[in-house]
Amino acid sequence: MTKSYDAVIIGGGHNGLVCAFYLARAGLKVRILERRDVVGGAAVTEEFHPGFRNSVASYTVSLLQPKVIADMRLADHGYRVIERPISNLLPQEDGGYLKLGGGLERTQPEFRRFSAHDAEVLPAYYDALETVAEVLRDLALKSPPNAGDGWRGLIDAALQGRKLSGLSLQAQRDVLDLFTKSARSLLDGWFESEAVKAAFGFDAVVGNYASPDTPGSAYVLLHHVFGEVNGKKGAWGHSVGGMGNITRIMGEVCRNLGVEISLESPVDQVLVDGGKVAGVRLESGEEIAATRVIANVGPKLLYGRMIAGGDLNPDFQRRMKGFKTGSGTFRMNVALSELPKFTCLPEPGEHHQSGIIIAPTLDYMDRAFLDAKIHGWSRKPIVEMLIPSTIDNGLAPEGQHVASLFCQQFAPELPDGRDWDAEEDKAADTIIDTVEEYAPGFRASILGRQVLSPKGLERKFGLVGGDIMHGNLTLDQMWSARPVLGHGAYRGPIKGLYMCGSGTHPGGGVTGAPGHNCAHEVIADSKRWGGPYSRFIS
After folding, report:
1. How far is CA 150 from the centre of its chain?
2. Helix axes 116-140, 169-180, angle to 10 degrees
């Protein structure tokens, strides 16, 4: 083996970089092993057509933890996020539209065009959502209590549950609703307009291969609203330079602390000796010794492909085999000769700097899911379009644009033995046809496109089943049970093995929280084991 490290991190995505930062700051000798030729994981900016660059997979900012931004001093190195003027535009099938966001004073009059009742209850809905979102923000940078830890686990559970128990009875009912109900059931209890319900219900199917009628889908809605941009809670924005600028800066900060980052270094196997990790073996055959191995890959990839079966007990293997993945996501980037002209709002405007959602009703979303289960993808898919070149002119030639098409309800595995490699262009054409219905001339404006089916996302980024969350956000795969009960506090079933990716609490999105929390558990363990790394545990 080559020289030994205190920690080797598998995967140079944003959580791996965050984890490396905290470990290196505490004095550990850290090496990141990244299989691609660039750091960032799914948060990268690449040229996909001559002269056109875009965030290839992850494409928008809200959930990145303010503490991580501050601790890594990202703003000092060029981190900048531009907030959307409104959150989303939802074109309607009758030619109308609904705008969401820009503040209560803007959204209420917009809702009043659809329902006076919905406009009146909106402040109470926002308050209910924000109360529960604040609980999530409080828990995001805390390690979940670990089942099997005896009194320590009970004490941790009591401390973390204190904020929940301190909520009013009404707020506790809201918590129960958001964690157990379907998005439709939740929204039916608040609103009457189908357009209004769709505006909120869209978040329930993002990265969630499910119908808005699926129990538990209300939580996915909540998961997408507990972030903030520039101190404004619930807002979303664009990272100048694309998402890759964030991870480029993170990599620079890590290197300045002495972290070694090895690109084009895919890991083949985690090495185990005497019930403890000993390091990793690369696909090249090179072995690297490490006291700790920290996986920033998803649980399915880690336990299904990187650890020998004999190193895991049968019950753990069985449970991890049942770990649910597959977010039903299809990703496209398109180079455009001009801005899309939407029938409902054809002229350039603030909607071009915001999210444009083609999913006018919850019924539309439900049909998209049912279609995907039968045919492999929806004949009228859910599409979110962002056009970041309207505010970031470094992404496209002058007068031209790039658009992100983030599409939902595409089966992780196609029925009837079909393969995504043979079908992805047909699915991409269906997506373009769908946009064309709402923005005539869109197809003719396309100069080039990048297509990533669920299989393409797995091949390019290691996302098993194309799962952008590293695992479904269902009640049985959350908090202390993410990825499995007994290993929810970032520690694997082998001594010295840790997990810092989105397959751990608090889940998917560019948050940095799993990386932050995992690093603090590694440092705390070192202190308990008598190691020297006791600084910077707060």
Report:
1. 32
2. 90
Q: How confident is the model at residue 279 (pLDDT cuts 50, 70, 90)?
A: very high
- Determine the pLDDT at residue 536: 43
**Residue 535 reports pLDDT greater than 60:** no
Torsion, Cα 39 43 48 53, to 10 degrees, reads -100
CA atoms within 13 Å, Cβ hemisphere of 515 = 32
| The pTM of the whole model exceeds 0.85 | yes
**Pairing state between β 355-358 and 88-91:** parallel
Buried b (16+ CB within 10 A) or exposed e, 364-374: bbbbbbebbee
What tokens appear for 120 in the block?
């009146």
Cα end-to-end span (Å), the chain: 34
Q: How many residues does the chain have?
A: 538
Query: How is residue 308 written in tokens?
Result: 């020998």
**What structural domains does the chain harbor?**
2-43+63-80+241-323+470-528 (3.50.50.60), 101-234 (no CATH), 326-466 (3.30.519)
d(CA 501, CA 509): 10
